[in-house]
Design goal:
Layout lengths: L1 E5 L6 E5 L51 E2 L2 E4 L2 E2 L3 H7 L4 H14 L1 H15 L8 H6 L2 H10 L15 H20 L10 H13 L4 H40 L8 H36 L5 H17 L1 H4 L2 H10 L5 H15 L9 H13 L6 H17 L6 H8 L7 H16 L19 H15 L5 H8 L4 H4 L2 H9 L11 H20 L15 H28 L4 H7 L9 H5 L3 H17 L3 H14 L7 H26 L8 H20 L7 H15 L4 H19 L10 H11 L21 H14 L18 H23 L9 H4 L6 H18 L1 H23 L8 H15 L9 H15 L17 H5 L8 H12 L15 H11 L107 H44 L43 H5 L8 H4 L6
Pfam families: HEAT_SCC3-SA, SCD, STAG
Subcellular location: Nucleus; Chromosome; Chromosome, Centromere
Keywords: Cell cycle, Cell division, Chromosome, Chromosome partition, Coiled coil, Nucleus
Length: 1235
Amino acid sequence: FFLLVSIPTPPFYFVVESETHFSSDTDFEDIEGKNQKQGKGKTCKKGKKGPAEKGKSGNGGGKPGGPNRMNGHHQQNGVENMMLFEVVKMGKSAMQSVVDDWIESYKHDRDIALLDLINFFIQCSGCKGVVTAEMFRHMQNSEIIRKMTEEFDEDSGDYPLTMAGPQWKKFKSSFCEFIGVLVRQCQYSIIYDEYMMDTVISLLTGLSDSQVRAFRHTSTLAAMKLMTALVNVALNLSINMDNTQRQYEAERNKIIGKRANDRLELLLQKRKELQENQDEIENMMNAIFKGVFVHRYRDAIAEIRAICIEEIGIWMKMYSDAFLNDSYLKYVGWTMHDKQGEVRLKCLTALQGLYYNKELNSKLELFTSRFKDRIVSMTLDKEYDVAVQAIKLLTLVLQSSEEVLTAEDCENVYHLVYSAHRPVAVAAGEFLYKKLFSRRDPEDDGILKRRGRQSPNANLVKTLVFFFLESELHEHAAYLVDSMWDCATDLLKDWECMNSLLLEEPLNGEEPLTDRQESALIEIMLCTIRQAAECHPPVGRGTGKRVLTAKEKKTQLDDRTKITELFAVALPQLLAKYSVDAEKVTNLLQLPQYFDLEIYTTGRLEKHLDALLRQIRDIVEKHTDIDVLEACSKTYHALCNEEFTIFNRVDIARSQLIDELADKFNRLLEDFLQEGEEPDEDDAYQVLSTLKRITAFHNAHDLSRWDLFGCNYKLLKTGIENGDMPEQIVIHALQCTHYVILWQLAKVTESSSTKAFTILCDVLMIFSHQIMTGGRDMLEPLVYTPDSSLQSELLSFILDHVFIDQDDDNNSADGQQDDEASKIEALHKRRNLLAAFCKLIVYTVVEMNTAADIFKQYMKYYNDYGDIIKETMSKTRQIDKIQCAKTLILSLQQLFNEMIQENGYNFDRSSPTFSGIKELARRFALTFGLDQLKTREAIAMLHKDGIEFAFKEPNPQGESHPPLNLAFLDILSEFSSKLLRQDKRTVYVYLEKFMTFQMSLRREDVWLPLMSYRNSLLAGGDDDTMSVISGISSRGSTVRNKKTKPATGKRKVPEGRTFLILKSEESSSSDSMWLNREQTMHTPVMMQTPQLTSTIMREPKRLRPEESYMGVYPMQPEHHQAPLDYNTQVTWMLAQRQQEEAARQQQERAAMNYVKLRTNLQHAIRRGTSLMEDDEEPIVEDVMMSSEGRIEDLNEGMDFDTMDIDLPPSKNRRERTELKPDFFDPASIMDESVG
């Protein structure tokens, strides 16, 4: 018999057989069995036959899911077709058709179809095993998973979800798409048959609890995507229930004469079926949530935790009525404290999707109040991507409600606009703009079209100036402008408004800008003009100049035209107004560098050019400040461009100015150097001020035709003879002479210079071998190479004047050592000195080993010079990898020797000094990068030098005591991870050349560095970075973490992984030839220690120090007999190893039995509790740069019990509760027990 059932999407109906397992995923099944898919015209198969007919069904058609399948594989004419995994992996078929084919197979024989689906999940995990039909019929899921675990290929840690390459990236998206399409196509009937979904959920739950990472990762992803698809089905059911209820209400409210009782009955039946379907969906989601999510969101693997958080964010956004509450938000809040950045990032992106929808803000109030402080603190996250998303999330919170964030919260974000990391700064700039600049007063609506001082941007510009001054970072205006450039372009490019604020008188009632505010506005205006003209971030914010698009180039040209047209007229006025203010004038004089000089001619602006030149001339006459004079010199240089017609006009003005300065200097010098007269202070001041002006111009302009060398030479000679020349005059005379020489050399080579110490460095650079580059071999006689004494003096100067504590620096301006500005300026000077010396190292002007004294300061002065030292390391490594490695190890040896001199040889290896050297070695090791092949020879040479140093000084007390420098091996072990596996063996052989047989038997604490270093060289074969069996949390560790399955006969023993007995003569192998090429000292040779390496991939057993070598070297009594010969000793050691191997295998078999027993017990408990384990608050680790202690009372005010997923009532719940009995019992219409 058949039963007529209504479905969620009228007006179609379908018929199901009450006594069979038939399930249809579509709603166009008719009574005669003629199933026509709407829109496709394909005939659907009839329902599956009863269990007794499984072996008899089918007529040999070989259709998908038919009887021509064995063990989950398609069989057709004896040829095996592709399995479901292969089809999805290829990605060539539309996922809709793949799922439709599987559904057809399921309708024909659901057991075989489910077997194919089970094998799909197994194979997606990278397992080579296959679940057979026999296993599917007679084994529980736990037994199947255990069997598949045993057949898992442990030789490789890769599986489809972690494999690299475009094919596997596409596979992950196809895998997720397949699950979503499968649920969507089965949402009307198959998922309710209490078979398919139960089997899949049970399998995925079991796999997600596996210790095999591949199973756990793949099944968790599948379960979460399955849950997302079910949430979508539940949402559709809720919508259909609301629609059905409205239809019922509309029909019931009709008058009795027009009311259709049949339709009421149909709507009630439909409502009941929808409610039953919703109950089933709730049960499925509860099973997935409690069986998978609440366990895996705390998984030891970060990728798995990230998957869980990403999907729960989708659920809350998709079906907010059911999931957007504190019971689910708590998991996101907890996980924001995760120790991995990618998980914290998923939390923030999930929350952004929720806060973006303002309709959901009311449901987020409690969460915001509890976790707002954590979100604010994440703006300082050590992972820049996390910090960026945290700032963006706070921006969304700000837009939803400005009262949520306090002034202190906002200030924590404000200062990030000065961050050196541009994405963080840009996000902070957008937050700042939304908070302070995006609000417009209603009064501004009437003045939108006004310009200049009366424009609506005038108040915003003032606000920007006030913010800049209050931030007290006046030297970083360029960073502030760059941070807001993307979100406030119109404001920052309103130069007309800025110009009006500077030149025009304030309006009635308006407060004028103070002198400090005007200086800040000029600096901001200069930075905006530079940003518009150059189109790249300031120094330190970008990786280099990028190629501009055509649109960006057009915008750049338009901006330069606008800047030139405005400031060609306004700049002379601004200079005239602020001519006596050195700071303002210095900034204003930089504007012509960004002009389009052609506009002076095309725009007929020559008179304004003449006005500009007059103002510059007046400023040169008024000021003696070096910055102002250099700004004037650069402005003349920018305007004196021979490509433009204004060149002659500017060149004449420049020549007239230099003529006057040169004549004045010659006159003053004659009076100043008159014999028999003591120099007058006024005369000295006039000479100095004129010399400053000439020197400033000589820096950017070739003044050779004025013959300034003779005058300065006469001045310096007189100063040497008399010894009473003022210091400043000598300095500027030297500098001017320096420029004279450079301009003469500029005709042959290009160079630049600085002052004092840098002058000598520049001279060495100019006359180094670099002078011959570019085919100028004729200059070889001029090449000068500094001798060792000069190099030593240069290095001593750096050590005495650069690597000092800031409080010890007595050269700060005006002696104000407590002045922060003076300290910063002094630091810049020291950085310039260090950079000048490092340049000599990089260009091989001085020996590279002199850099050892620089490199050893890397950790101590990291904040001040870390970038310079790191760049020097990088450049020297590019020049000579081996020599750079030798320099690094030399710096560590120097620090070690200094520690020995200070503390003696009996120092404490846990002392801060020794720990600091080890940390420096670790930092050095990180600089070698991940490509071990490129640095192979350099790392090996580093180990060679380190080993020689460790054994260089024998102990005067005899060979029974360790060498004096043996502790250095503890430092050297930091570089062991950078060795290739075969190189570790070679270095180990080289190490044993320095060891005696007695050394290897020592187990006292003083020999621990040697033991530790040997272990680091012997650990090369156990790299399990991508281990198949991942570690689990410490609270859930089992025996399986420590022992793995012994190698079977199927495993091929790799070459070189058997027990090796290495003879001492083998040290001349090809792998170690390069280690011996620089050996200059005779080393003691000991009997070769046999290399004992396991034949299986397992973690080496951790032994106590006193047990480390007992299995290899037996302890001998003090009065031992003569040592055994070589062959006898080897035979004895092999016998010992065989006995140990047998004992180990027996222990592992016992451990495996325990694991199986424990696993069975876990599954029994799980089946008994129906996956209702209580969720716990996760153990979190605060990873912020500025943590303020442990997390306090996270749970306060939140309901943290694991709750059943209870879908909310439809929107008409209130109306439904008021229904009056009519033709039917209201209890049959709606069940109030289900929300």
